[in-house]
Write a structure and sequence with these properties.
Helix content: 10-25%
Mean pLDDT: 80
Order of helices and strands: HEEEHEEEEEEEHHEEEHEE
Radius of gyration: 23 Å
Largest sheet: 7 strands, mixed
Number of domains: 2
Structural class: alpha+beta
Shape: elongated
Number of strands: 15
Length: 297
C-alpha cells in the first residue's frame, strides 16, 4: 500500500513549527540537533549481511564503525538510500531494497513504525512502514518523488543558483523539498518513534570517553554492551574497557534502582569466599535510571 503520507506528515509538522525553526539547505548540518548521519554504504551491519547507504542515529551514540559495527543496528533511528543520478527512483528493485532494509530493521528492533528516504540527488522519496501487532502484517507508505533542484535558462536570475559548465542553464534548489528534508532530519525525537531503548539524544552515554564496541548480552529488560576507551581519550582516570547496560523501557527504571541498591548491599559482605567479588562496581548511573555503566572485572 502506497500513499503520500510520509511527506504530508513532515509538511504538517513543518507548517506548525515556529519561524525560528525555519532552516535552509545551506545550514542543514548545523541544525541536526538530535540525530547524526553515518555513511554505511560499505558496512554490512544489518544481520551482518545487508547495509543501508545512510544511517541516522542519535547524536550521543558513539560507535567506531571502522572497527566494529554489528551493534549499530540496535541504535538506528531511520535509514536513507543514496543512489547515483542515473538510477530512477521508480525502479522497483531500488524501492524493494529500501523497503527490505526498513522492514529488516523494524523486525530487528521490534518497532511499530520506521521512516526512511531514497534519493538520487535529483529527486527524493520518503517511506514509512508500520507493523500491525495483531496480525503481524506490514503496511508500506511512499511519498511522491520530490524534485531537489530546478533548472532555469542561463539568462535567468535566481537566489541560490549554481551555473553549470556542461549545459547552458542554471540550477537552483527547490526550497520546498529542502525544507521537507530539513524538517525530516530535525524532527522532535517522538516523531521517529525509536523504541529499541529508553534513551534520548540528551542522555550522557559517555561518548566523549568511550565508544560502543560490541554487544555482550541480551536480557528481558536490558541489553549490555562493551565500551572501549576512545583513541583520543588520554585520561589516566578512565579504564580501557567498561560495560554499559541500557534498559529497553522507562518502566524498567525501578528495576535498575533496586538492582543497584541490592548490589551495593551484597558487596558489603567480605567473607572468606569473597562473595563480594561476584558483583561489578558501578561506575556511572544517571538519575533517569535508563542506563548503568559498570567496571569490567
Amino acid at each position: 500500500m502506497f500513499s503520500t503520507e510520509p511527506a504530508k506528515r513532515i509538511k504538517i509538522e513543518y507548517e506548525h513549527s515556529s519561524a525560528s525553526n525555519d532552516t535552509s539547505s545551506t545550514s542543514l548540518s548545523s541544525h541536526l540537533d538530535f540525530v547524526k548521519c553515518r555513511c554505511t554504504s560499505k558496512l554490512c551491519y544489518l544481520e551482518e549481511k545487508h547495509h543501508a547507504d545512510c544511517t541516522l542515529v542519535y547524536k550521543n551514540v558513539n560507535i567506531n564503525i571502522k572497527t566494529k559495527h554489528s551493534c549499530l543496528q540496535d541504535f538506528v533511528v531511520c535509514l536513507g538510500e543514496v543512489k547515483s543520478p542515473q538510477v530512477s527512483l521508480a525502479d522497483e528493485s531500488v524501492i524493494g531494497q529500501t523497503l527490505q532494509h526498513l522492514q529488516m530493521l523494524l523486525n530487528l528492533q521490534k518497532r511499530e513504525k520506521i521512516y526512511g528516504f531514497l534519493t538520487n540527488f535529483k529527486h527524493i522519496t520518503f517511506f514509512y512502514i508500520e507493523a500491525n501487532e495483531f496480525d503481524h502484517s506490514i503496511k508500506y507508505y511512499k511519498s511522491q518523488d520530490l524534485e531537489m533542484f530546478n533548472y532555469l535558462p542561463a539568462t535567468s536570475s535566481s537566489i541560490n543558483t549554481i551555473t553549470t559548465t556542461e549545459q547552458s542553464r542554471q540550477v537552483y534548489i527547490n526550497e520546498d523539498t529542502w525544507k521537507i528534508l530539513t524538517k525530516f532530519l530535525t524532527m522532535n525525537i517522538d516523531f521517529y518513534e525509536y523504541t529499541q531503548f529508553n534513551i534520548n539524544p540528551l542522555d550522557d552515554l559517555l561518548g566523549d570517553k568511550y565508544n560502543i564496541r560490541r554487544k555482550l548480552g541480551i536480557g528481558a529488560t536490558a541489553i549490555v554492551f562493551l565500551l572501549e576507551k576512545n583513541e583520543d581519550n588520554y585520561s589516566n582516570d578512565d579504564l580501557q574497557h567498561c560495560v554499559i547496560k541500557i534498559f529497553r523501557k522507562h518502566s524498567y527504571s525501578e528495576v535498575l534502582s533496586n538492582e543497584l541498591k541490592i548490589t551495593a548491599q551484597l558487596k558489603q559482605f567480605n567473607n572468606s569466599s569473597k562473595f563480594n567479588l561476584f558483583f561489578e562496581d558501578t561506575l556511572y548511573s544517571p538519575p533517569t535510571g535508563n542506563i548503568c555503566v559498570l567496571i569490567c572485572s
